[in-house]
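Review session, final week

We close the course with one last complete record, chosen because it touches almost every idea we covered. It is G-protein coupled receptors family 1 profile domain-containing protein, a protein from Caenorhabditis angaria with 410 residues. Go through it on your own first, then we will talk.
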Amino acid sequence: MYVDDSTTLKVPDRLIWENIEIFLLIAAVAIALVFNSLVLVQTLNSERSNVSRNYLVPGGFSRSYFSIFKINLCISDFLILLIYALGKIVWLITFEWFFGDFGCKLYKFLSSFSFYANSNIIIAITIDRLKCVYSTQLQSIHSGRRVRIMLSLCWIFSFFCSLPQLFIWRTIQTTPLGWTQCVSMFVEEIANNSTNKEETYKQAAFYEIAHQSTAFWIPFLIIVFSYFLIVGKMLSFNFKARDALMLRKRSDYDDPSCTSIVDYTTSNSKNNNTTLNHKISDTWQSFWNSPRASAQLVTRGGSVRLTKLQAPTIVHRHYSTSFYSNWRKQLGSRVFRSACLIILTHIMLWLPYNLISATRFFNEEFYSMVMHNGGNILEDLIVINSLVNPLLYAERRHKNNHNNRRSIIA
């Protein structure tokens, strides 16, 4: 709550912006609850498949490890919608707090808990993407263990960060109106004509800085730094992949060992050179990928013995071309794109309000002017984020062009 300079609390007049805010919140909450419910049910009932790449095994079946992130993010969105958003709608409509002192503390605690949980889960997704880029191994059963540990820490950290709200927020009753309001201890001290207002303002500023930093700015910096590392790694891999491709071409066409690797005998070599070269060309790719030490091809004119069949692995700084292929597939997967969209949307919708809120530490008049002219609507973008999230990570089904089976892309 904005700390006012007034020495008494009065029942404020309803602003036109608050009527708009009520309408927007009701619409956003109604739509978001439907979307999140559908996506949560869909995710929980998604197909169980055999163990494969990017999958883990909880119990006797496998489930996409990214679905664990989606379920937890969906739960945090439900908390924002059902606790923070609905509570704010009632508060804006009644203009008075009717749920007592304990209700005030609990509402602020759970609202903060939902914000912290949402931000922390976004951090966990970011760290998982970072690990995916820097790891030389595909996701496995160990990914599920890592994801569960990270998410457990997210919820625990959110709980402890929200505890101060139980001590800072309380209800006060103005006189002679008897109007009850849920405010912070700093507003109460100022409203009670505290003689040490400067110290109260400093304490309020410290609280706001700590709250905003842990709820948004620290997660924001972690996300930016992580994606800076991801972009750097991707650029580095692009250069390495290009060099590895050039090295492979030189190995295929310029390496003398490739021309001396084939010894063949034939009774009609003169008449069968074209056929022989064609056979070697057709089998060259499988020849290099064969794990055997030698093999024998049969042509019309005789036999061709291929020695040293174990191809030299094209390695550039310890990375094979097959690894580049798997790495690119993993980055190009729907999981990776969905994660990036979720993170980008979180930043875009949470940043405006937090930027405006941060101005109070530098220009109190500007902050007050913005908040009295619709600035609170920027805070409602957090609720919009909970509406957009299920659209970003909802599972989509498509028909497989090869076997006409229904499959899930998650």
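Two points worth writing down before the exam:
Confidence is low (pLDDT under 50) at residues 1-8, 48-62, 255-319, 397-410.
Residues 246-316 form one domain.
Good luck, everyone.
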